[in-house]
């Protein structure tokens, strides 16, 4: 389509302004992490650090003991993601390709469940975890994260399984392959993009989750990154430099993940499946 | 004849086997989901009908009927939180959809910078909300915040403003933080929708002498309506559970100006330790979410059947 010059110009201007709007607050956090405390509280603010320092990174890891938060987040997010893929792919395949009664009903129920706010289940889960003696354990987060992220993963994976030609399934069953073997030897390898998409979404959701982590794992040793950062605030003043130094360390791996998996994230966002 | 019966029998055996395998593969996932979502919600309802007291190694319940709900309905804090959560969700999501649509339409034809734009737009989406809340907290700071520096330098105000100090500005500040985080996500969805519209549609419309507004209203908008409505619904339901943003940014304040329903529930449950009343708040929240979902159930259904047609 031939388009007038002015529309092209408007397009570029809007795009660049939009990207700047996204990046500027982020830039501010980034430079603050490298500023000494006197500059952090300086007014007027310096847009470029005058005396850049790594002291806040040291503070975050030595004084505030930030490393266990990262370790806890990695353990909880990785195991939850694995479990979601394991159970979610089987359920998604089953709902896409096998003659299960009430498929539409199950899909709608899953969609509605995935929209329930976490606050709805937090009190009974707390009571349950407390009586199991599971508060302040990894499983206290892994089990709810697995359950809460699975409906969305099932949705995504089902859509991918539907795109694999049904004839393959017929052929495999005529050849006498068991249903399960057909699933993991033929269908699963053909839906790796779907697995990536589901994995990234689950991982990011676990990595950012706050309410469960705050309520179930409140002891200092078991906190995840969001809880650690939320409760960082000192008694007298907010140690922004330390908070942002810790935040940057938590953010960078995710940004790398986003750069690598951007294609699958976008396809996940647009697969008729929209969840933030 | 016999061969046909045999064939039919084998087909039935195959179907039964497939059904059994399917149920077997579906069940582990469904059991986990039901165990951690449906069962607790039912238990939540039961708790909301009881007076729950935490004891040393568990809890004790005594049935009190609807008295918790009675207390909730007569608490002004509940209605305040409901109203705040409702208009916060609707206003934020409306702003996100409008900005998202306008930005997507403007940048749809920009060919360069595609990869870079996508990565940048995905950063806020993947950012831990708690981190972005701390980031905005620092930007909004009433003494040395960079926002104050900017508005004072532009002579928009004469003194630094305590943005998080008054109800109106705190609510707006919170909305802006959310709009910043989620608009890029909406832009990506709408951009993907725009790419699906075949070029011939535009060309045909241009041939017929349609102007830009007519092209948008008659060609683009009808194609996008479905995905915009769904994105909006999902976002509203999600915004309804907002907890981490006000928890860090405003702690529900000033006063209770930004106390969302989830924050109220968490406070009654885990700070006041009133599990019965807190569960009643949670159940009421679910009821509101369910009503919204049921209103849009037909939209959900069409999504399912659309997927099946593929």
For this entry, give a set of tags.
heterodimer; A: 276 residues; mainly alpha; 74% helix; globular; B: 310 residues; two-stranded antiparallel ribbon; 2 strands; 4% strand; flat
SSE arrangement of chain A, N to C: HHHHHHHHHHHHH
Q: Over the alpha carbons, how many angstroms does the gyration radius of chain A reach?
A: 23 Å
Strand content of chain A: under 5%
Instruction: Kindly report the average pLDDT value of chain A.
Output: 88
Largest sheet of chain B: 2 strands, antiparallel
State Rg of chain B.
Answer: 26 Å
Name the helicity range of chain B: over 70%
Note poorly predicted spans of chain A: none
Strand order of the largest sheet of chain B: 1-2
Q: Which two chains form the greatest contact, residue counts included?
A: A-B, 112 and 121 residues
Q: Can you summarize the main beta sheet of chain A?
A: none
Strand content of chain B: under 5%
Q: Based on the structure, what is the oligomeric state of the protein chains?
A: heterodimer
Polypeptide structure, described:
Chain A is built from 13 helices and no strands. Chain A has helices spanning 5-33, 37-40, 55-63, 67-97, 103-114, 119-132, 139-163, 166-174, 179-190, 192-208, 211-216, 225-230, 240-270. The longest helix of chain A has 31 residues, at 67-97. Chain B has a two-stranded antiparallel ribbon with strand order 1-2. Chain B is 76% helix and 4% strand. The two termini of chain B are 37 Å apart. Chain B contains 13 helices and two strands. By secondary structure, chain B is mainly α. The chains are: A mainly alpha (276), B mainly alpha (310). Chains A and B meet through helix 1, helix 4, helix 5, helix 6 and helix 7 of A and helix 1, helix 3, helix 4, helix 5 and helix 6 of B. Chain A: InterPro entries: BP-dep_ABC_trans_perm (IPR050901), MetI-like (IPR000515), MetI-like_sf (IPR035906). Chain A: Belongs to the binding-protein-dependent transport system permease family. Chain A: Residues 70-261 form the ABC transmembrane type-1 domain. Chain A: Keywords: Cell membrane, Membrane, Transmembrane, Transmembrane helix, Transport.
């Amino acid at each position: 389509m031939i388009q007038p010059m002015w529309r092209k110009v408007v397009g570029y201007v809007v795009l660049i302004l939009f990207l700047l709007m996204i990046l500027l607050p982020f830039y501010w956090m980034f430079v603050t992490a490298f500023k000494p405390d006197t500059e952090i509280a300086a007014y007027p603010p310096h847009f470029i650090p005058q005396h850049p320092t790594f002291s806040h990174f040291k503070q975050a890891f030595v004084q505030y003991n930030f490393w266990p938060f990262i370790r806890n987040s990695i353990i909880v997010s990785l195991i939850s993601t694995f479990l979601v893929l394991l159970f979610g792919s089987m359920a998604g395949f089953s709902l896409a390709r096998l003659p299960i009664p009430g498929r539409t009903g199950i899909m709608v129920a899953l969609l509605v469940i995935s929209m329930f706010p976490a606050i709805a289940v937090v009190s009974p889960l707390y009571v349950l975890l407390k009586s199991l003696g599971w508060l302040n354990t990894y499983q206290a987060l892994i089990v709810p994260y697995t359950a809460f992220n699975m409906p969305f993963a099932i949705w995504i994976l089902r859509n991918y399984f539907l795109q694999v030609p049904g004839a393959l399934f017929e052929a495999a069953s005529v050849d006498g392959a068991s249903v399960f073997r057909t699933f993991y030897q033929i269908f699963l390898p053909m839906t790796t993009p779907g697995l990536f998409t589901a994995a990234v979404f689950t991982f990011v959701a676990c990595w950012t989750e706050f309410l469960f982590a705050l309520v179930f794992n409140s002891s200092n040793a078991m906190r995840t990154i969001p809880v650690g950062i939320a409760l960082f605030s000192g008694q007298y003043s907010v140690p922004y430099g330390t908070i942002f130094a810790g935040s940057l360390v938590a953010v960078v791996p995710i940004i790398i993940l986003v750069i690598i998996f951007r294609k699958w994230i976008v396809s996940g966002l647009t697969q008729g499946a929209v969840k933030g | 004849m016999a061969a046909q019966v045999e064939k039919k029998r084998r087909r039935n055996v195959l179907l039964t086997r497939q059904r059994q395998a399917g149920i077997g593969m579906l069940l582990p996932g469904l059991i986990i989901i039901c165990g951690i979502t449906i069962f607790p919600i039912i238990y939540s309802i039961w708790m909301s009908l009881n007076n729950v007291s935490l004891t040393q190694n568990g809890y004790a319940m005594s049935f009190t009927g609807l008295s918790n709900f009675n207390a909730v309905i007569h608490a002004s804090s509940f209605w305040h939180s409901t109203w705040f959560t409702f208009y916060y969700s609707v206003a934020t999501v409306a702003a996100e959809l409008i900005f998202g649509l306008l930005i997507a339409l403007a940048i749809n034809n920009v060919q360069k910078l595609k990869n870079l734009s996508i990565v940048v737009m995905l950063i806020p989406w993947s950012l831990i909300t708690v981190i972005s809340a701390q980031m905005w907290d620092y930007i909004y700071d009433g003494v040395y915040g960079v926002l104050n520096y900017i508005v004072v330098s532009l002579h928009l105000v004469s003194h630094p403003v305590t943005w998080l100090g008054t109800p109106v500005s705190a609510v707006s500040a919170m909305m802006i933080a959310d709009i910043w985080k989620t608009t890029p996500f909406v832009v990506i969805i709408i951009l993907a929708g725009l790419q699906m519209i075949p070029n011939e549609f535009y060309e045909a419309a241009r041939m017929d002498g349609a102007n830009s507004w007519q092209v948008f209203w008659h060609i683009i908008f009808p194609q996008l309506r479905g995905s915009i409505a769904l994105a909006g619904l999902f976002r509203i339901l999600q915004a309804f559970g907002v907890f981490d943003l006000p928890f860090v940014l405003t702690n529900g304040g000033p006063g209770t100006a930004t106390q969302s329903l989830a924050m109220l529930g968490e406070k009654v449950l885990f700070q006041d330790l009133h599990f019965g009343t807190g569960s009643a708040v949670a159940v009421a929240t679910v009821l509101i979410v369910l009503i919204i979902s049921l209103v849009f159930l037909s939209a959900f259904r069409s999504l399912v059947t659309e997927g099946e047609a593929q």
